[in-house]
Write a structure and sequence with these properties.
heterodimer; A: alpha/beta; Transcription Regulator spoIIAA; five-stranded mixed beta sheet; B: alpha+beta; Heat Shock Protein 90; five-stranded antiparallel beta sheet; 3 helices; 5 strands; 34% helix
Chain lengths: 124, 131
């Protein structure tokens, strides 16, 4: 099995209702479900938004995208926003080619995603 | 082409190793940048199809000549048929079937053949794309 994707939380005091995590490694069919469970275990009832910093994620296949879509459903059910940042060119290619990029708020950097959320009038 | 220029590996759950081997071989053959990434993404989709639907057992073979780099992924279930290369894009975001769609989008050539109880996915990239 591909080594588990590493998930590191980066909480931000100004955004208490946003789960911010950095992912690193390679995401594929063999470890995708593991990542979903890990991400869900970090979600608390207070979290409304999610920011996934993908700078360290060097690969993602179609099963990996399904996990991002599953996380998106959890967040949109709470009325929140899920942002993906710092996409590796390989990830951009998969998201763009499948057309699934439109289901996410994609930002160049984590700082951009956080700034966007801070600018929102609703609970952050 | 001599046999030592050919890569032939089993498809196992160690997809990282398979991707590393494929990248190394394809780069040595002269593929680089986004086209190398496209082949990597497509070949990985073919390999996970083997793990998920193709009987869990298969092989990946890569070789090249002056014109093309070719990757063959053979499973043991024989479920994929030649017409599967024409599948439409899955309608919903969570529908299955993006793998075959991606292979068709990302490679210069994508064919499927059935050979005595097995299916062979062939992905091909031109090494000197026409300008």
């Amino acid at each position: 099995m591909t080594t588990a994707v590493q998930l590191d939380p980066h909480p931000d005091d100004t955004l208490p209702r946003t789960l911010i995590v950095a992912l690193s490694g390679e995401l594929d069919y063999t470890n995708a479900e593991q990542l979903r469970q890990q991400a869900v275990s970090h979600l608390t009832p207070d979290h409304r938004n999610m920011v996934l910093d993908l700078a360290g994620l060097t690969f993602c296949d179609s099963t990996g995208i399904r996990i991002f879509l599953a996380l998106r459903t959890l967040i949109t059910d709470r009325g929140g926003v899920i942002s993906l940042t710092d996409l590796h060119p390989r990830l951009s290619r998969v998201f763009q080619t499948t057309g699934l990029v439109k289901f996410f708020a994609v930002q160049p950097t984590r700082a951009d995603a956080l700034a966007e959320l801070r600018a929102q009038p609703s609970p952050r | 082409m001599s046999d030592d220029q050919r890569g032939h590996w089993p498809i196992t759950a160690d997809l990282t190793l398979l991707r590393q081997r494929l990248l190394r071989h394809a780069a040595r053959a002269g593929l680089s940048g986004p086209r190398l990434d496209d082949l990597l993404i497509a070949a990985n989709e073919a390999a996970i199809n083997v793990l998920e639907h193709g009987g869990g057992d298969g092989t990946l073979t890569i070789w090249h000549d002056e014109a093309d780099l070719t990757v063959d992924v053979v499973d043991t279930s024989g479920r994929l048929t030649p017409s599967d290369v024409h599948r439409r894009r899955p309608p919903g975001p969570t529908d299955r079937g993006f793998g075959l769609w991606l292979m068709a989008q990302l490679c210069d050539e994508f064919t499927i053949r059935q050979l005595s109880g097995r299916s062979r996915v062939r992905l091909r990239m031109r090494l000197s794309p026409a300008v």
